[in-house]
Amino acid sequence: MRIAVEGCSHGELDRIYTQILENETSTGKRVDLLLLCGDLQAIRNEGDLQSLAVPVKYRRMGDFAEYYSGQKTAPILTLVIGGNHEASNHLWELHYGGWLAPNLYFLGTAGCVNVGGLVIAGASGIFKPNDYHKGHYERLPYNAGDIRSVYHTRQYEIHKLQYLYRPDIFLSHDWPNTIEQYGNVRELLRKKPFFRKEIETATLGSPPLQMLLAQLRPRYWFSAHLHVRYAAQVDFSSLPPTSATENEPQRCEPLPDESLPSTNSEAIDISDDLHDAVPKSASAPHICTEFLALSKCGSRADYLDFNDMKTPIDEMLHSFPSTERPEVPFSFDLRWLAITKVMHPYLSLHRQQPPLPTTDDHLIRQKIQQEQDALKTRLDTNPDLLHIRNVQKFVVTAPTHADFTPAHNSATNVYENPQTCAFCELIDIPNLLTKSGPQPDTRHPTADSMQAGSTQNELAQIRAVAADRKRKRKSLAASK
């Protein structure tokens, strides 16, 4: 399967698809999947601009509205995560994930799907410590604070992702904290000298994503946000088989400059059989994670990358001429559905987030396994149960750009998305994202099932990893 990955989209869908189609023409290789790492700016009409966190003078419609209205159709199956410059009111309608436009799928605030046998997970937004432990309290119309806090990563989503077995690909807008130490730092500073202070103080990137990287160890991790192309490799091979959060991955030697692809037509050949890692990869840990950050869409070639990855459907894909584009199998990840159902009672639509269970809580893991088994039983009688194209159908909710009037103001109107209703019905959870706003959840966890120390435990894990790295860095500097 040939996969294109793009950094910050900034409303430039036309340019991105044009570049990919030109690459297909020049190489004779068809692209089967596109991954966008945030800042899509899924603006449907002028009302959505008021929920976009950019200075007023930079607000513009971009290309997305034409894909939303049906004037254009994404030529390639496209997966999207959210960044920090988004039409947040639109993305919130699809909190659990869904079609933003035909063939253009949002993974949700956090999510995990299966594309042709590849397990792809992702986390939207960026990290800000002041909002990390809060619930999703923001309501339309967003005030000056809400318009920014609404896209800040929450502990609740990171916690859910911790229950996954190692995915093949992970997408984030933010970089994992200190990931730069596993690549060519000197080259990064040459391109972005103003990163020096954050690098020296180990504050570049997201600590929760650093923790996820150590735990999940995906084969590939793609990011954006910092508007620079940067490659790194995290080697886990010398770690003992214990909790990844309690150990620091071994740092690889800085990659030589020539190892960083310089043009978007260069493919990365991957010989590992990804089929072995889906979904039973928990028993076969990935030794390394290949990290690649990409820049923003522009005239330079550092915002787009092409990868050839082995998948179980390669034979099917190769049976089609390169001039045809077969429909790639696209389904929900079974374990993610189970996690979402079990963790639903902890979802907070208020400022306060109830305490979360610890990730090693045997009862929670047992419930997740039970839900997973129940879904497998349902699959026996309904083989199409997990097929996303069957469960969720794209529907125009807010008015299109052409139909918009001030009376339709999307900044104040709350639209109930049928795709969210369908997802909630699939896993039998109440839909709290209704037009009337948050409703009291009568299924809050009992005191016995909640462990108040979970937040402190997670903070301790993050701080321990950061402190250990800081000590090693000081020791290394002292020995020179």
Automatic annotation (TrEMBL):
Keyword annotations from UniProtKB, A to Z: Hydrolase, Iron, Manganese, Metal-binding, mRNA processing, Nucleus, Zinc
UniProt protein name: Lariat debranching enzyme
One biological process term in Gene Ontology: mRNA splicing, via spliceosome
Basic residues bias locations: 469-480
N-terminal signal peptide: none
Cofactor(s) needed for function: Fe(2+); Mn(2+); Zn(2+)
GO molecular function: metal ion binding; RNA lariat debranching enzyme activity
Family statement drawn from the similarity comment of this UniProt entry: Belongs to the lariat debranching enzyme family.
Amino acid composition bias (Polar residues), ranges on this chain: 448-459
